[in-house]
Amino acid sequence: MWLFRFGFCFFYSPRFLLPWLLLVSFARSLYLPYLSQTVQSRPKMKSGTFLATALAAATSLTEAAVIWDGRFNDFTSAADLNKWSWSNQVGPYQYYIHGSGTVDKYISLSPDYKNPADTVSKQGAKFTLDSTAFWNGQNMRRIELIPQTKASIASGKVYYHFSIMRKDTNAPSVNREHQICFFESHFTELKYGWISGEQGTSNPNLQWMTGGKSQWKTEWKAGVWHNIAYEIDFGANKVGFWHSEGAAPLKQTVAPVSASTSSNGADWHLGVLELPRSGYSDTNEDFYFSGVFIETGTITIAIGGP
């Protein structure tokens, strides 16, 4: 106790405190002018600037992130698709839904097959339905690729992107139903041509469907690139539709609608299934795709993706 009292009296005695007070006062006199000058020279942040900065920071947390890339940039030719098998699941695509011919009969790659406005993709793909394009003994002509990935492409909110075009040469038939870029449950897909059960004999429209119901349509003219994104919220069971033509940025054409968003992450088909129709013979048909990828976060509206 006596030691404590001695220390307390010593440190708080005027003889001890006075030199320290003088030293602190001297240091303060040197530092305060510098501090004042620094604060005055520092630009003031207006409330609007602060708000914009905060919003930018918040936005950066949800920036677009590609979780699966199917843009064919790493392919030397369509023959690379043959590297995939059930026992050797490599590359971005599963390739097993096709006819009896070699891969080059159904898919070919070229820079000429992509949307010219897409500067991210090195090349696009031409998918062909011919007289051999029957898969697994079915009477439907099919050529489809399925994403090969362990990414969570079937949960949360995701955007499935692709661009599609046709030409007058080997034009898809307006007299047959074509199911394009679909899920196996068909909760969202494109369709082209005469749809089974409808009136008339032909239909020139490209349509976006949810659960078999048309939500959007436009005449599919030759040489026009249609840029598409399915906005799928697997948690909320809703699907929206983004669209543009040519080089125009994507816009939300149809706000999200209710849908049975069911997927196991391995049942989205990039390509075409054509239903047979009595009285209409098979002809060669070509479909062009580019800018294929899936992303989360904020949608990328620029053609080709981030």
Automatic annotation (TrEMBL):
Q: Which Pfam families match?
A: GH131_N (PF18271)
Q: Which residues form the Glycoside hydrolase 131 catalytic N-terminal domain?
A: 66-298
Against InterPro entries, the record matches this protein to: GH131_N (IPR041524)
In its UniProt entry, what is this protein called?
Glycoside hydrolase 131 catalytic N-terminal domain-containing protein
What is the protein's species of origin?
Answer: Apodospora peruviana
Cite the source lineage. Answer: Eukaryota, Fungi, Dikarya, Ascomycota, Pezizomycotina
